[in-house]
Specification:
By secondary structure, this protein is an alpha/beta fold. It is built from 11 helices and 16 strands. Strand 1 and strand 2 form a beta hairpin.
């Protein structure tokens, strides 16, 4: 192999310099994050899920430690779409990195309205539909558990934009392939798998739930096997690209998703433990390709050997 291996890949109309990006919900204050890591080195920037209007999210406590992870119930806290466009987006446009805006609508109409607003905004390259929030009633997961509703939301949003459209799906369903196919049929360009599985933790001394919302989403290493399995199953059911997310905290973790069928990965709570983890994964992927004599990371996608 001559020269550095190719790390670039494609998501719909979006060309990524490498397949690593933050998961939605991780970062909200981008100017502070940019003091720690170089955003221009990331494959893409993915925003926190935005609601149409400002929202305080769920009451505290919102997080609880559990074995091999964290139980989180932030509840889609959001400054609102208009405030994001006015205060955060101008800063992000300074970087030569695709910007994917995550949206959390409370109805089909709200998803469409927010999408139409973004169509006229400079710098947005993709829209990620959060169809899978595990801890807000009336948002997300109620939509993403129903193939017909998933298909309808994606289809209506597809009709409102030419931007690359990503659908973030929940693992809290009987059949991942069924939901994945519904999103593809609706017109999604990319799938994002997985959002957080539902979980619950109890303080046995007080006999009360550890979260004010009672249930929350499980994040961290505990969910990686679920995510890898979901990507593998979905990749056999659809022809569109898949982004793998859930429990990624190392290069090896990212490679599991890629080998299972993901063309890119999103890194979540590992950023809280090590803010440089995404850059380390990017460098680790390059080192792996060199060590294996592979010239293009896309050759690894879906390369799982099952015989």
């Amino acid at each position: 192999m001559k020269g550095a291996p190719n790390l670039s890949t494609t998501l719909g109309k979006i060309r990524l310099k490498n397949p690593v990006m933050p998961a939605s919900g991780v970062f909200a204050f981008w100017e502070d994050i940019a003091k720690i890591i170089d955003l221009s080195r990331l494959g893409a920037i993915v925003t926190k899920s935005l609601r149409a209007k400002p929202s305080p999210g769920n009451p505290p406590p919102r997080a609880a430690e559990i074995p091999a992870g964290t139980l989180i119930s932030t509840g889609l806290e959001s400054i609102g779409l208009d405030a994001f466009v006015e205060s955060e987006l101008p800063f992000l446009r300074k970087y030569n990195t695709p910007i994917i805006v995550s949206l959390a609508g409370g109805s089909v109409e709200e998803f469409v309205e927010m999408t139409e607003k973004l169509n006229s905004v400079d710098g947005v390259t993709g829209i990620e539909l959060n169809l899978s929030c595990p801890n807000v009633k009336g948002f997300g997961m109620e939509f993403g558990r129903d193939p017909a509703m998933t298909r309808e939301i994606v289809s209506k949003v597809r009709g409102a934009t030419d931007l690359t459209l990503l659908a973030k799906l929940t693992p809290n369903v009987t059949s991942i392939p069924e939901i994945a196919r519904a999103a593809e049929e609706g017109g999604a360009d990319v799938l994002v798998l997985i959002n957080a599985p539902l979980g619950m933790a109890i303080d046995v001394e007080t006999r009360r739930p550890k979260l004010a919302n009672i249930v929350g989403g499980i994040s961290g290493p505990a969910i990686r096997p679920i995510g890898v399995r979901a990507v593998w199953e979905a990749s056999k059911a659809v022809s569109i690209p898949i982004i793998g997310v859930g429990g990624i905290a190392s290069t090896s973790d990212a490679l599991e998703y890629i080998i299972a069928g993901a063309v890119a990965v999103q890194v979540g709570v590992a950023n809280f433990i090590n803010p440089h983890i995404m850059i380390e994964i990017i460098e680790g992927l390059q080192d792996y390709l060199i060590r294996k004599g592979i010239g293009d990371i896309n050759k690894l996608v879906g390369s799982l050997q099952t015989q």
